[in-house]
Design goal:
- This protein is of the alpha/beta class.
- It folds into three domains: 126 residues, D-Maltodextrin-Binding Protein, domain 2 (3-Layer(aba) Sandwich), CATH 3.40.190.10; 88 residues, Periplasmic binding protein-like II (D-Maltodextrin-Binding Protein, domain 2), CATH 3.40.190; 71 residues, Alpha-Beta Plaits (2-Layer Sandwich), CATH 3.30.70.
- It is built from eight helices and 16 strands.
- It has a seven-stranded mixed sheet with strand order 2-3-1-4-12-6-5, sandwiched between helices.
- A hairpin with a 6-residue loop joins strand 2 and strand 3.
Length: 296
């Protein structure tokens, strides 16, 4: 199985980190190398431009791809499942939780366009013409779409367009160029995509499970502690765990009192308060560790 991943840019390092955490260590590669092996002999990596990854997957050069939803939507259809996919739709298998951004419709702050309807009969400049045309159809606005390849935010100020559809993360670039957001067009983040015909492939499912386990571990911590056996119910009441805690008998303390070892997965945000409460009900030897992967 081959996974297409971004070869550079802001998505490259987080994607390689995800692969590493999922147990798919990428073997060291030379600069400009297109392919790389992983520790799994059945899984290899194809490095490509983020915008080209959807087409590589559709054409069969890769079985799955990691790139932004905006790139996949611009290149063609995206479905939530193989059963819903039509023609050459890609299946959106998993939101990987990074690379979040928005495609927005924006226009000059002091211009004549303040609502979407004002754009009827106007012109929109964008690097995402397919998404933009689909959006205009959805909102019932008849406007021309001009495709540009950079500096989209300048086009309204040089009379190339009345408005733009562009990516924004913080909104700073829009503000600097005196553009105001009129409407949200698409919420995007990095996703794992596949062709419909490989969704049920065992290796694809294995990779999907590995990625899900990494995401499930984010923001979780593993707590281990000893507690008096007679106070176990109080300890259980304190732990805001992932299901019930694991309880094991241990040797009695120096006074001959029965003790148990309690292990639990808790939300990272609950750790600070939980430790204080556990100490108040007699827990000792409390250990907090990070979790690399969690298969739920």
């Amino acid at each position: 199985m081959r996974i297409a991943v971004p070869n550079k840019g802001r998505l490259h390092d987080p994607t390689l980190s995800l692969l590493e955490r999922a147990g798919l260590h990428v073997e060291e590669t030379a600069d400009r190398q297109l392919y790389a092996d992983t520790v799994d002999p059945d899984v290899s990596i194809l490095f490509a431009r983020a915008a080209d990854i959807p087409e590589y997957v559709r054409d069969g050069a890769a079985d799955v791809g990691i790139t932004g939803l905006d790139q996949a939507a611009e290149s063609g259809g995206v479905a939530d499942s193989a059963s819903e996919a039509v023609d050459d739709d890609l299946v959106d298998l998993l939101d990987l939780g990074y690379g979040s951004c928005k495609l927005v419709l924006a226009a000059p702050e002091d211009g004549d366009i303040s609502v979407v309807a004002d754009l009827d009969g106007g012109t929109v400049a964008t690097e995402f013409p397919a998404i933009t045309r689909d959006y205009l159809d959805r909102v019932g606005v008849d406007a021309d779409v001009v495709t540009v390849t950079g500096a989209t935010e300048l086009t309204p100020h040089v009379d190339m367009a009345d408005a733009i559809v562009d990516i924004t993360s913080t909104g700073t670039t829009l503000k600097v160029n005196r553009l105001a957001v009129i409407d949200d067009v698409l919420d995007s983040s990095v996703r794992l995509f596949a062709r419909p015909d490989v969704v049920d492939n065992p290796k694809v499912k294995q990779v999907l499970t590995a990625f899900e386990s990494v995401l499930a571990a984010d923001g979780r911590r593993y707590l281990m502690m000893n507690a008096p056996e007679e106070r176990l119910d109080e300890v259980k009441d304190v732990i805001p765990g992932l299901g019930g805690p694991t309880v094991m008998n241990v040797e009695a303390d120096e006074n001959g009192n029965g003790m148990v070892a309690v292990h639990a997965v808790v939300d990272e945000r609950d750790v600070f308060a939980t430790i204080s409460e556990l100490k108040s009900v007699g827990a000792t030897g409390i250990l907090v560790t990070e979790i690399e992967r969690l298969v739920e």
